[in-house]
Hints:
Oligomer: single chain
Number of strands: 116
Mean pLDDT: 85
Low-confidence stretches: 1-20
Strand content: over 45%
Radius of gyration: 64 Å
Helix content: under 10%
Distance between the termini: 182 Å
Amino acid sequence: MYLYHKWTFFACVSLILVGLSVSEITLEPSTSTHYTTAGDKVTITCTSSTDQNSVQWKKEGDTDFIGDNSILVADTTGEYTCSDDLSSQKSINIYTVGIDESKFTSTTIKEGGSHTFEVKFSKLPASFIKATIRWTDVDDVTEDISNSGLTFSKDVTDGKEYSLSIIDQDGISLFDKSVILQIVSVTIGNDPATEKIVVGGTSLTITCEVKSVPKSDGVKFSTVKWVEDTTDKKTESDVSKTTYDITLNDKDSIDSLDKIKCEGTVVGDYNGYSEQISEMYKYMDETPLLAYYQNDPVSHDIYVEEKLTVKCALYKYKVGVQPVFKLCRKDEDKTGDCEELDDKKGETDNDNPSVELITSSFEDNQSGRYFCRYEGSSRNFDFKEFQVNIYTFEVSPKMLVSDKIEGSKLICSSSNRNANLVWKDNKNSKADDAHVEDQSDTTGKRLQYTLPTSVEGGESVKCELIRDGDVVDTKTVKIISTFDIEVERSGKRYGYVGDDVSITCKVTGLSDNDVLINEKPTWTLGGASFTDGTIGMFNNGASILRLSLKDSHKGEFKCSYGDTDSTNGMDVNILKYSFDPKDTTLYGKQGDSITFTITMDSITENTGSDPTVSLSSGMKEKTPKTFDVSVDFGDGEKQELNFKLEYNVSDYYISDIKTYTKDHIVEVIKLDLSVSPKLLLTKTTAKKELLCTTNDITATLQWKDRNGNNAGDGDVADVPDANNKVLKYTLPDGVQDGDSIKCSLMKEGKEVLTDAVEVDTTFTIDVMRGGKRYAYVGDDVTITCKVTGVSESNVKVLDEKRLSWHIGNTPLSDGTIGKFVNGESVLQLTLTEKQKYTGVFKCSYDEEQSAKGMEVQILEYTFDPKDKTLYAEQDEKITFTITMDRISDITEKSPEIKTSSETAYVTIPEDGGTYPVTADFSEQDSKTITFELQYDVENNFVNELNGNMYKKTYDVTLKKRELSVSPKILVKKTISGEKITCSSTNSNAVLKWKDNDGNDAAVNDVESLDGGRQLQYTLPTSVNDKDVLTCVTMNGEVEGESIQVKVYNSFVVEVDRNGERYGYVGDEVSITCRLTGIDSGDLELLNDQQPTWKIGESALSEEGDTTIGKFINGASVLKLTLTEARKGVFKCAYGDKESPTGMTVGVLKSTFEPSDETQYANQGEKITFRVSSERISGYNKIPQIKTPSAQEFVDIPENGGTYSVTADYGDKDSVPISFELQYDFEDKFVNKLNSNMYKKTYNVTLKKRVVILDPPTYGYYVTDGSKVTITCTSNAGLKGLTWKKNDQTSASDNNILETDQAGVYTCSNSEFFSQSVSIHSIGIDESKF
């Protein structure tokens, strides 16, 4: 029973597990939609994750499965579902569509044609409503598709591959195919750009070629032939290119080009393309020319000075401009040496131009191959060459000048040994053959004529050149027998060795027409023939001997012509000058000093002048002279030194000059030779390495030891260097202080440059002004390193490049190390950072470091704002905050400042000072304000200061602001949607707003106003608290002036001393409204703003004694006088934010009676005052009073108290008395009180009562019929004043007495005071007056 139940349980579980199994169907391809055209089938494979054999396909609407396997092959429209035994299934849709793509096939067409590719669809599924069409050269286009059909077409003209893809809205491809449009073209003839101009006799190759785009070997001629006129010349087949050669000899062959054509059949790759072609050679477009000579020269024999005529012609010339021709002679390198021609004669036929070229006279060395050259605008071409032979024809001498005519011999010659030469005598008859001798040889024709006795002076004979029976040229020889010959400037003359001088031989006595041509004299020196010079031909009877003077040229120079000697001579004396060094080419390096010594002989007879020498303008010295020249190559590789010798030679020089000048030029070639180090500062010399370097890698370097001998081979070694030759010398033992170790540069075994290393072992290195020193960040400081103990000459070669500085153990990499001057090198350094430059500065020369250093402490000063250029409006106040660190070692001195508006320095507070500046531009748009800082640092500064006073000037440029913003600062609870406006005074300004990240504000958020002079920015939601928005002016792409608006929305408005507070009626109180959450630097922008106030719900306005102050540092003070009505909760608001709490003000009352500040009393009279003071409810403090006669305060009763004062004037008419009230409010008063004690003083002035009469006299007189009027007043007022007569009878019930009765009258006010007067009556008789 137990086993039965157990297995039953497991069977149930197994069934349950089987029922819970799931499977997954996978389709390949996986797309859910498929398209097929008529005749095509769709094949889809279905697989199941459980059992592949369990899957089956079924079409919607059918009851039977399709086959028994997993592969569906279908071609009808419908929904098909694949399922397995676990009921998992997946469906697809198949749509059958009709496609006509008969016009969408690759096609070959002829060049210039067009073609339309087309695909047409029908039977589209109802769900297929849109398609994306993609051509290879068109962006995707989405089109609606109607169910009735759709045609896709494209007109194309370019040969290339085109693809069409049609994709449905689900991304499934409906159609995807590529086709090619192939374009075929046939060309005949050559490319005009490479067509060669034809010279007569040249072969021209003409091409006929079939091409295709895209290129294909399948495009070709199936057959092709060349036809000239109507005759087949050449036939080929199955080629893409064929050629035809024609030789162009003459005009007829050129004309035959009109008759050449290419005929054949061209086949393409697609649509069975085959086309017959027949193309004529279009030579006229490609401009082949025939170039020929009309006179067809082969060779020419002409003579010097004879001209050559050549006729050059072109045929079929189509350029359209007149051609340019030149006659050329072929030179040895075959490049063609062309010359301009004297004369050209052209014909007018533009198609067949020709030109007659006439050369200038030839010279005898111009034989050679000649040709005509055409020069076009884009290319040149040469005609055929022809030979030109140039021959000479001349007589010698050209004029016979001799006193012995008979037997003189004349020569007529030509380089043409076949020339026909004939001598004619003085009678123009052919010379007697007995006097003519033919001396011709292989070099040419030569006839000698020996003059007979019949020829006399003044006559002439001639030689004729005859060709083809005609006289081509004639040469005449004139006979001169009367003349003189002399040397010009005869006598004693001087010249310097090396001078180029000239001495003139002159033949005189000739007539103007008797000119010696191509003849020379002969010269003698000291009676011996002289040939060491150049003798010039006679010109106008003068021949010049040119020579360069030598020592051997001392003596008398004479000349001769024919058999005649000169009657005089020139006695030449030789002078010398010397230069040391003698070489005119020297070597040196930049800055070398070269010493030149110059001497110059003087002329003995010339006592009034001395030779001078100068090297630079303005400097002239007598010789001998020594110059020390410092070499300066500048940017070049050599320097030319020009020494100018000058000597006033009077008339003693060989040539006719008064001032002898000579330039002696020495060229110094840059050749660097340097030793390193130049000065060896070391305490130990052994094993120290010296380097000798030159930029001449062909030179030889040689080190010398301390004794001047060549250094040992084991101590020297070459150092590899790509650009220089470097030789290292490792010093052996024994080198001592004061030694000089030399390196020599050798060229061709000669020492041309030397340099030496000086050795010093007794030096010291120190940092000057060592100890603790101070400087400020940004200061330019100098620290001096000094080397002492070296010789004066070695001080000059100290090398700052071998000097280094350290701060502590850290090498200093910046700053400028100055050149050594008198052993001192100055480090110039800008202290840009405090931490970097704080420490002990020490210097080192090579490996030797200074023993002590300078400990530098860096101080700081701040200047806010930091910008050196600020923008402000007229009268705008800018506050500068300046701090300046103090030197801890100085306690009694302080930094000071003087601003532009002050005349004296003031101390800068230790925690910094503020210095306001009001912008005042007057008529300028900018101004510079200067802050001068000074500090007496008592020699503690890094630099040694004049008077120990550190001074620093800080200049700031204020520019008149063109920009303004409204508001200047935006303080609002809600800032999104707020508008801020930027304005410019410049009507041409281009404005731009930028957000907090510096990006341009969104276009939709800005609006241009007032013609572009304003730009309004509506703040988007992205603006946050403390964002800074910037308005800038744009100069093209460059930003100019800018102005900023800072935004606050997290600020707090609060009332200071909020809570319950009290004050008395009549008290002047202050309540402060304060803004917090705004940066201190921005609070100043609110200084023209004020908050609003209310008491309870009633707004409080500025009127009467109520004022609302502007914000100062974020605080605005409300001032008002308390009244009974001004009690309640005082709150303030700014913008759209109100203070969350306020000050609840309670108003107390107090009385002081009588209230008049002046009271009148007689001496001893008692006056009673009543004082009351309301108390704060529930408060245990009591108001108190101290009377004038009391020493202490006493409590004022709750209902008030009375306090009597007795008038005591002493000798005065009035006395002041005071009642002092106090009340301990314990900080409950509206205002913050000192020690919380409210105090108030009532001041009263007691005055004696006084009666005043007007008129002010005590005696009055009345006559009959007259009255006296007296007015009585009192300083205590008119109340109660009356008049009595004789103290009994009332005379007036007010203060005015009018009476005509005598008596004593008294004015009084009760019993307190009185004043009496007497009135007297008198009788007057004035009848006789």
